[in-house]
Amino acid sequence: MKGRVALVTGAARGFGRATALELAAQGADIAVNDCARERELGDLVKRIEGQGNRAKAYIADISRREEVGKMVANIKKDFGRIDILINNVGISPKHNGVKKKIYEMDFEEWEKVIQVNLNGAFYCTRYIAPLMIENRWGRIVNMSSMAGRVYSPVPGAHYCASKAGLIGFTRVCAAELAPYNILVNAVAPGRMETAMMKDTADEVNQESLRTIPLGKFGKAEDVAKLIKFLVSDENCYLVGATIDINGGRAIL
Q1: Is 159 one of the annotated active-site residues of the chain?
Q2: Which entry of 103, 159, 180, 237 is annotated as an active-site residue?
Q3: What would the DSSP string read from start to end of 95-149?
Q4: Residue 198: which CATH number?
Q5: Per the CB 3.0–4.6 Å rule, which of 23, 95, 168, 183 could disulfide with 28?
């Protein structure tokens, strides 16, 4: 991936951080984003630069399209191009470690999750796709979830709806952008050992573990390795797919 420039949203921790490091290890230069966590992003940038890659942090709330527009303009100015987009950022609010049922959920909480998880992916794609079209090459990966495919008792309805929406969004983007050699795919992780999982009550996590045929939770690095393939030159024909990675939890 030498010479490629990747933007990873929500890169301060979890899937985003692991993916940024994996792509950097393959030679890509990395723009990392988060809406806060400046210290964590700074540490990540130093680590990537230590590998000999260019890297820079961009603090922006991707649920606000004006901030996304400014971020993309700054990345274009700093790096000259954007070849790879990882729409990773996502939130899944919990209350004392458990979700709110649909009949208890605050309207504001619903709107915030949809705005971040679904609208944010649209804003980033909308601003970056024209740059990829100009270069006749691009790779986009949307971070969906097992919860977007099958019912899960862990996340709330807003999270499940946003992740299901990303699967449909992926299909449309894939069809419209493939003629420009831009391959769009999604990944749908199950329960993984990430900071988001730590926000969930331990008894809920243990119940989830009992439903995984492999008998263990996955790691962020497992997802990052899958994304590495999807955005590489090795992938020249897989497009519009949503790939499950869940230890067999949701065998379709």
Answers
A1: yes
A2: 159
A3: BTTBPPPTTT--HHHHHHHHIIIIIHHHHHHHHHHHHHHHHT-EEEEEE--GGGT
A4: 3.40.50.720
A5: 23
